[in-house]
Design goal:
The structure holds 2 protein chains of 2 kinds. Chain A is mainly α. Helices cover 76% and strands 0% of the residues of chain A. Chain B is an all-alpha fold. Chain B has 12 helices and no strands. The chains are: A mainly alpha, B mainly alpha.
Amino acid sequence: MIGLTQVYVLAGLVFAGFAVMSLRDPANPRRWRNALFWGLFALSFLAGDHLGDLGNGLLVLAMAVTAALGLGRSGTGAEDAGARAASARAHGLRLFLPALLVPVIVLAGSLGVRHGGPVAAALVDPKQATLVSLSLAALVVAVLTVRLFRQPVLSPLTEGLRLADTVGWMALLPQTLAALGAVFALAGVGAVVGETVTRVFSMDTRLAAVAVYCLGMAGFTVLMGNAFAAFPVMTAGVALPILVKVYGGDPAAICAIGMLSGFCGTLLTPLAANFNLAPAALLDLDDRYAVIRAQAPTALVLLLVNTVLMHVLAFPSHP
Amino acid sequence: MGYMLVLLGVLLVVAGFAVGLNPLLVVLASALATGLAAGLSPVEVLAAFGKAFNENRYVSAAWLILPVIGVLERSGLQEAARGLIARLRSVTFARLMLAYLLFRQVTAALGLISIAGQTQTIRPIIAPMAEAARASETGVEALDSSEAQKVRAFAAGTDNIGLFFGEDIFLAIGSILLMVGFLEQNGITVEPLHLSVWAIPTAIAAFLVHGCRILVFGRRRPRP
């Protein structure tokens, strides 16, 4: 059955390819460091299950130190604007076809596995259908693009490395933050924050309680980087005992709008690195927090809107 | 007071990010502080962190998309996206962003969260289109770097906002399943549908609020 194992092997091979391409890149003065960084990434994907917990810990430590010393940028790749413009003129709208094929394969793959009956379910792990489809799409469309537009055979690796070096060490941050979340959970950080919030703020009126829950979901999410970590703590601490039991609110409306208040926090926090920091690196923005700044006004207004919506909609029996 | 010590890790993260230290080192330091405060030894913390890191590899597997996007860019996809917008004078920055916001919200509400995204869509297609539209509206050949960066950041933010305030309308998305499971543990039975309908008012508000910001951004005259 095709599942995470195969996806990880493919990812490991791609990262190993980045490492080799880094080494062969005389234009990058820090090519050894880059090769080490992407090589360790490859090692994690290819052999992470055999390294042991401490081994994996040392691996992350080595990657973080390598990254902190400073990575260089790939010097190869299509920096030739003239060639790109000529290719764009020659191929025109046909260039969009492979780009559209990626979502089509993802869609067909995930729907096919979900509704394809026992044969499809035996072929692909249904829980990983989307990731498997995305990996397949990445592979198939890369080969197709090379053939269609007559690109060099190794260009998926050299060009992938160009983008990967644009993201740099930021590529590792989302996964390390997910691991930090697990350590926080192990140490019971969530429960302590939740207790502090409920002890510090008074919830004498319904509006105050609604505000504590919505703002608490957002604030907690900012601190933890993830609304899913905030939800159980804030809902067990504020929503169920006070909004539902004391004020008679509808649990479905309260939870749904509470979660969306948490999403407002996700838009505001650097700890949600895959949404907020990685795109800033990928788009070559000088300000690491530029995407958060662009989102902040919308997020803050929506947080207020959510608080009002909950106050108005979630208490049908006590308007 | 002792149990409050575990918050030290949270404080370290906040301070480290605020000061602008390398986030990878900040995260490791925070994990160490949190683990020590919870009574683990440094080696135990490193092992716990390594275990969680290994279990979360699927987060980084998303970078598998980089090679295909890279070859497409080498073939001129960004230039083609810019050229298309330069020819279609009716596609303004505001119309492009509004259409993309609506597309992202509606497809996410149907559960199609992986058909677009920052790496697949924003970097190679939508950001160059937005820059081209903005350039032709403001009557310049190419945007200056600061304006171009503002446009790209705004496009990236629009993708996140469309995704976040669309996906919760879908019944089988992770956050809905988390809520159903959590409420069940607390003796409350809720249908996924009841949760997802309550995501609709906020989704509409998100379109209106961010839509207004798109219109304002589109009308703004860049400083000369």
